Amino acid sequence: MQTQLLADGMERLEQRMFRQFSPADQADERLVQKGLFLYRQGTVYEMGFDAGNQMLKAKVRDVHGVSVRISLNPDKGSSCSCPEEPWCRHRMAVFFKFYQQIASVSQWIQTWRNQKQDASVRAQKSPEAWRRLAETTGALMPFEKIQDDTFLMEHYILAGYRKFQEQAPVEKEWTPLYMLYISFYYYNYLAEKFDQESAGITRGLETIMEAMQKAVYDLTVYAHPFSFDPFFKELKADTARLLGRKDPLSFSIYGMMWFQLFTKRRDRELEAERLAEADQSDETQLAQTIFALLRNDDDFEEQFAESSELAVPHAVQWLEWLLREDEIDRSVRVLKAMQKKLDLYLARMENHSDRRSFSLWLIHKIEGEQLRLHVPDVTIKLYEKLLPYSARHLGAVMLDAGKYKEWVELVHWIDFTPEELEAAGLKKLMERKPEFAAPLLHQWVESLIQKKQRETYKKAVRYLKRLKKIYQGLNEEPRFELYLEQLIDRYRRLRAFREECERGKLIHGKD
């Protein structure tokens, strides 16, 4: 019984090895040669087979002795006490040592080299070949090791991308499609294996999404040849898998594909029909909202209102994509619909840091003149909900909208420092409504002088000079002179302050 289990497991492992390593890849060729050398030198010893766990165990004498474990279960990986990753010469030697119990190692080498896989992926350009490459590369992940230390996930994913790049088509026009297709199925394979509750796993999968985003952008720049159609057909059909996974990252990828890549009206109509007939869930309901938005349906707002507040970060992404295409009217619809759920979404966040990070992320996505010049009142309402994190941006929008009194009230409420206020548009206020700026400058001059430091005196003098310019513009310079005279008299004991006023040529030194 145990012998048969070993034979069956080795047959599965043999097939994995054929798919995993290519004789056209110089690194793979060197790895096989090194493993074969160790095997033929008789360095593998203390072999054992754990039938219950389907695990090969052995030790290898090399520069340093190492312990090797190889799982015959395709869902599990392997390990070696050497520092090489993800597959090393020691694991290759152990494979050959066990393999020789059921078949000829020399025959395996000959069969492997006769595959001539150098023409496989690059020449075939077929959905089947590319998907197989993505999934076999994903199968190389040492799942148990990553579960123990999830932040290794990104390292192994990037190692997979190095392999993908080696197999990329020679023709440059095929590269974006190749990277998208490979990344899509690489993501799907790994997302089904790992639980995204871990930050390390999520960050690793986000790395794949970033590669997909770049590929999608590159694909939208140029017209597609007909030879791309089979790949797009597969991708469109398999986006349904993303919704079935019920996690935010997968839904984001779904949205990206249908917003930016699959733009033909008929394709979107067919997907909307499929969603209407599918089993209803939070994901399919929100996906239907995407197509209501893309069609510019009158009931988009009503559909979005039926979703939970967890739809907010997805709506932020929709905004980004719409603004990139200058779809201002639809962007405004999303902005208004999203605002109604924003308070609930922010309330879900347990700490200040998370709320601040989200607020700044949202502000970054919509920052610019497109929205705030088109619908300043809507933008102001959004920034008011994001206070205090949006104070500087809210101030700028208020000034652009001519809401000077509201701007001053905001400044008093937030208690800006002078430096923060300058970033929020003080100079613009001084140019447009200097009478609103003067009281603020009076207030800061007093607070700076009372700190009784040379540097704060210098700042106070800078603001006094601005005040003087404001009063001159209002034809009230005598009023400023009286104010300055009273100020100097009140702080006459502060010699350093008087010296800075003299240096700034606000007053003359004593004769």
Short description:
Keywords: Metal-binding, Zinc, Zinc-finger. The chain has 511 residues and is mainly alpha-helical.
Question: Would you give an account of this structure?
Answer:
It is built from 28 helices and four strands. It is mainly alpha-helical and 511 residues long. A hairpin with a 5-residue loop joins strand 2 and strand 3. InterPro entries: Znf_SWIM (IPR007527). Keywords: Metal-binding, Zinc, Zinc-finger. This is SWIM zinc finger family protein. It comes from Jeotgalibacillus haloalkalitolerans.
Quick tags:
511 residues, 28 helices, 4 strands, 4% strand
Poorly predicted regions are: 117-121
Q: Characterize the main sheet.
A: 4 strands, antiparallel
Q: Going across the biggest sheet, name each strand in turn.
A: 1-2-3-4
How much helicity do the residues have?
55-70%
What's the rounded overall pLDDT mean? Answer: 87
User: What overall geometry do the principal axes of the alpha carbons give?
Assistant: elongated
Beta percentage is: under 5%
Rg for CA atoms: 33 Å
What separation lies between the terminal Cα atoms? 112 Å
Number of strands: 4
Summed up, the helix count is 28
Q: Supply the helix-strand structural class.
A: mainly alpha
List the topology elements.
Elements: H1 2-20, H2 26-40, E1 44-50, E2 55-60, E3 66-71, E4 78-80, H3 89-99, H4 105-113, H5 120-124, H6 127-139, H7 143-148, H8 153-166, H9 175-193, H10 199-221, H11 229-245, H12 248-261, H13 265-277, H14 282-294, H15 300-305, H16 312-324, H17 328-348, H18 352-366, H19 369-374, H20 376-385, H21 391-400, H22 404-414, H23 418-423, H24 426-432, H25 434-450, H26 454-473, H27 477-490, H28 495-503
Antiparallel strand pairs: 1-2, 2-3, 3-4
Helix pairs in contact: 2-3, 6-8, 6-9, 8-10, 9-10, 9-11, 10-12, 11-12, 12-14, 12-16, 13-14, 16-17, 17-20, 20-21, 21-22, 24-25, 25-26, 26-27, 26-28
